[in-house]
Please model this.
Amino acid sequence: MAVTASQDTVRGDAAALAATRVRWTYIAPSLLILWIVSMFDKSNVSIVIANPRFLNEMHLVGQPKLLGWLVGGLFIAYGLAAPVWGWAVTRYGPRAVTIAGLAIWALTCFWSGLSHSYGMLLASRIALGVGEAICYPITLALVANWFALRERGKATAYWWIGTMIGPMLTGLIVTSLIIYLGWRGQFFAMGVLAIILPIPMMWLLVRDKPQQHPAVNRAEVEFIETGAIENNEDAPGRILKGIDSFWRNYRFWLITIAISCNAIFFWGWSGWLPTYLRSARHFTFSTSGYLTFVIYGFAVLTILVIGKVSDRVFRRAPFAGLGWALAAVFLMAAAFAPSAAWSVVLMICALCAQQIGISCAEMLMHSVVGTAQMGSSQGVRAFVTQMVGAFSPVMIGYLLALTGGSFIVPFAALAVAVIVSASCMIALTSEGY
Model:
């Protein structure tokens, strides 16, 4: 039986073949570098707080509550600033907002390196959170502006791997910088990196919309516009036409709740991972940092695979729910593992499963929110997510203090969080997402 392609499909394929690929050669790599540098600056403190010299110099030995606030304080500021940046993205465009935010967080890295008291260091981390709050609003706005709906899974995977490459390289690079330059020197290095790499890329390579970019031809513009969610006749496009605001979109809120509970898991887990490896599993400081590199490396491969598969299947909610459920199981198995080696293996499994959940959820946002509202909606999403996730490292610090340093109870709390995330995917799965 012969199969005849529709005229729309033929036109779309022809446009894709004739189009330039600026979205893949300029936009996607710029977002990837932005997120890698962003994760350096957020994740480096997890290595720093496991460093004995830092703990002694800042008089923080045996102070897990205060150490938790160094991680959590950033995310509270991140959440509070995100809606403001979301409004700015809509008003001034993602490119200008990105450059402003990058300038702020570069300066705060130098501030951290100059800190001589706990209060000064905490203030610098809070200021860094304000600058880094640009990330979600500008990223999802650029993806919505530059990529057709059916390639946003791959586009999301492209920048989302930066959230894993950053911590992965943090374990390797920041550990080495601390060993050779000291904990202050690594903060200075992070500030220099923000100035010399992502700022020039955003200035030279990125524009807010395809129509504004000098290297884009008309075929690429048409391909992107034709593939926008507003022109999509599958379930996401049809449902979106009946919703005039993300505030009244329950699908947006289900995904936001799921991502927020995921933030509890990820920032609690990643913020204390080096300390867990050193204190609970008795690895040395340098070995725990290098193991962090290996653990995140497996997560990068997972994201690349799930991004490609989800665009083909175009069903993301079931993958997300299953991933989060498995993350809870593997995390608790790691806590009870009889040996350090088995604990590391199960930690890898937990992170890979969690990344299936969160990467699919990030892709789902593009199926429930329109292009025009993407920047403002993600400012609100980031506010909710970061305000919820911010207290996770602090919570773990308090639980460690209460349990005498045992990680079983903190890990159980993180496992419950991703079970809630998995539950949010049930309604979306039943609707065909």
Notes: The longest helix spans residues 162-196. DSSP finds 19 helices and no strands in the chain.
